[in-house]
Description:
With 375 residues, the protein is α/β, with parallel strands linked by helices. It is 53% helix and 15% strand. Helix 1 runs parallel beside helix 12. The relative contact order is 0.14.
Amino acid sequence: MEYLFYICISIIILYSLLILVFSIQWIKMPLFSSKQNRVFETNTKFSILIPFRNEENNLPNILSDLEAQRYPSSSFELILIDDESTDNSNLIVEKLIANNTIRCSIINSKGGKKKAIQAGLNKAKGDFIISLDADVRIEPNHLQTFSNYYQQTKAKLIAGPISFIGNSSLFNKLLELEFTSLITSAAASIRLGKPIMLNAANMGFERAIALEFQKEIYQSNLASGDDQFLMEAIEKNYGGNSIHFLKSIQANAQTNAPKKLSVFINQRLRWASKTTSYSSRFSQFVAFLVFLFNLLFIVSFLYSITNLNFILFIILYLVKLLIDFPILMSGTIFFKKQKLMLLYPLIQLLYPWYIVIIAVLSIFGGYKWKGRNLR
Length: 375
């Protein structure tokens, strides 16, 4: 029993130290300011890759946002990759691009999102790739901000901020807050030089590097994970400092939160299924530590219910409230969503349950994504 006590204390201390370090890194990370965001004499030559599958309702929005960019149309091309859509996505795209000024091409791909990205990558002509999901919305200065940041830093991989589009439902607001915690933690780890994750829905990278390592990035049997494997390949060969997070709201990409609990669970199962394939020991350590802390939180609650003694659970809850608060508060300020913090006490009670359940399900079950049943 004494050993168990020391193990629990060690988990609490390690988790607290980890979140404290992440909080410091996120808060100290400077904003990419408007003064820095100036127009350079030479624009970065972008190739924008957007893989899509059954996105007929979303593609008009992202195409409209790209056409509205305050960036020379001669300095970027758009490559849309149809991943076996069964709706009218392809027809809608063909009509839209016939009436706009963007250099755009459509190609077809089979075998999932990673194969689609690889197909687009091999067709791309730009020096720097911008990867976007088909369902995101971006600001008019999005490309200019990425260009300026790249020209100043020469980062090999740039992770952009992502946020959920808000609505009034409690479910959506809880997801917004939870997603903010993921983005800020990932950004903090990038600044630390030990990146744990990023999201292909809004990121940029040098085309030559992706081509150099495309076999290990795009050829695994996982349905997704190209963003994670690219990140790990760059960290391994060029160092963690070659990966940056672009902390600018002008570079933000907004997307709709999952509308149903089942969609949310399948999304998180897809993300969790990649964990065992990570080559980064630090990423594996963080994932395991977060799982252990949240498991301990649940066990303490069940123990308290059984023994009618809530002291241990209350202590853990207060520790979690205290240690997670700074990074989440700062993150909601950055995304201009401070009101979400009114739900902070509630999500701290719910979060551990979903973390543990998703972790267990990802080991024993598959998931559904874009109409496909996957494992």
